[in-house]
Amino acid sequence: MKIENALRDQYRKLAKDQGYRSRSAYKLLEINNKHNLIKPNDTILDIGCAPGGWLQVAKKLAGPDATIVGIDINPVNTITGISTMQVDIEDKHVTDKIRKNFPFSFDVILSDLSPKVSGIWHFDHERQISLTLVALQISSKLLKRGGNALFKIFDGSNSGYVREEAAKIFLKVSTSKPKASRQKSSEFYIVCLSFKG
């Protein structure tokens, strides 16, 4: 078995053993350990939250009194102490719909968005970037001043543009590729600290 496949299976087994809904939970744990995105009692919005692995991590990191909200175009099975909402982020009224259900601002916004991959790289990259730019726009409207955000990116010709746009509204922007990501995968994460408001 190739080392990369062994690592992927290792994280999958860990997720099953530790009760996480996806191995991507370990990506968020690793990034947070390095960048301290999530703090106790934070209000957190997870955009594209299905199946819920990041919601579980957010609750673990922010604690039992934190307010955690997840949104996704697909339904998400209930997680105790976490609110979810089924909504299309590309709906032009999505921000208003979120505010109607959750009338407060967030300390942290997370986005692990990925399109249904077609296998046509140029198309998949463009689609993923488009979704991430929507998530960035939502963040600009719903984050508290000084808040943090994390966005998945498919590396390619337009990934630099997303980072440039993020740098306009956050004081510090950096990139991260956690060990739980497949090394051959094009995905990486943009870590955004201190929303300028």
Notes on the protein architecture:
The chain is of the alpha/beta class and 197 residues long. It has one domain: Rossmann fold (3-Layer(aba) Sandwich). It is 40% helix and 25% strand. The protein is built from 6 helices and 7 strands, in the order H-H-E-H-E-E-H-E-H-E-H-E-E. It has a 7-stranded mixed sheet, with helices on both faces. Helix 3 links the parallel strand 1 and strand 2. The longest helix is centred in the C-terminal third of the chain and has 22 residues. The protein is globular and about 40 Å long. 39% of the residues are buried. The model has no long low-confidence stretch (mean pLDDT 90).
Present the secondary structure layout.
Elements: H1 3-18, H2 25-35, E1 43-47, H3 53-62, E2 67-72, E3 83-86, H4 94-101, E4 106-111, H5 121-142, E5 143-154, H6 159-169, E6 170-176, E7 187-195
Helix pairs in contact: 2-3, 5-6
Helical content stands at 25-40%
Our count of domains comes out at 1
**Oligomeric state of the chains present here:** single chain
Q: Could you tell me the mean pLDDT?
A: 90
Q: From the 3D coordinates, which CATH architecture would you assign? A: 3-Layer(aba) Sandwich
Give the CA-CA distance, first to last residue. Answer: 48 Å
* CATH topology grouping: Rossmann fold
Q: Which percent band covers the strand fraction?
A: 15-25%
Structural class: alpha/beta
What is the name of the CATH class? Alpha Beta
Q: How many beta-strand segments?
A: 7
Sheet having the most strands? 7 strands, mixed
Uncertain runs are none
Shape: globular
- The strand line-up of the biggest sheet is 3-2-1-4-5-7-6
Q: Number of helical runs?
A: 6
